[in-house]
Write a structure and sequence with these properties.
Strand content: 25-35%
Number of strands: 7
Structural class: mainly beta
Mean pLDDT: 74
Radius of gyration: 17 Å
Order of helices and strands: EEEHEEEE
Largest sheet: 4 strands, antiparallel
Low-confidence stretches: none
Strand order of the largest sheet: 1-2-6-7
InterPro entries: Ntn_hydrolases_N (IPR029055)
């Protein structure tokens, strides 16, 4: 069995990539933390080209500080430069708190049984 899961309350995020088979890999799960112009749909190399019609009223900016701190989790790299994305290893959990402090921890392969 495999499971990719990502959940947030708007301030904190938890994502995991899990597979209970030691030989097989779970479906891919990537994370991205670098603010760059290519987060905007009009980045150089976008398939629709630089003359594409705007899809929203989002301001185009290439200033890192204007993007602010962020973490994006996705099943595929979503920007032109795939080097921006980091593939999560097998069976990790990534958590990000409200201060944008991230932690990457390996999940235990054998869960402890607890009486309820």
């Amino acid at each position: 069995s495999s499971l990719n899961l990502c959940t947030t309350d708007g301030d904190q995020l938890v994502a995991l990539r899990f597979r209970n088979q030691p030989i097989e890999h779970p479906p891919t799960l990537y994370y991205f933390t670098r603010a760059r112009l290519n987060l905007n749909w009009r980045y150089p190399g976008h398939p629709d080209g630089p003359t594409a019609e705007p899809r929203s009223s989002v301001k185009v900016t290439d200033k890192v500080k204007e993007h602010g701190a962020h973490v994006i989790v996705a099943s595929q790299s979503k920007t032109f430069d795939e080097k921006d994305w980091r593939l999560m290893d097998n069976n990790p959990a990534i958590s990000v708190d409200e201060d944008m402090k991230g932690t990457l921890e390996r999940l235990h392969e054998k869960a402890e049984t607890v009486e309820v």
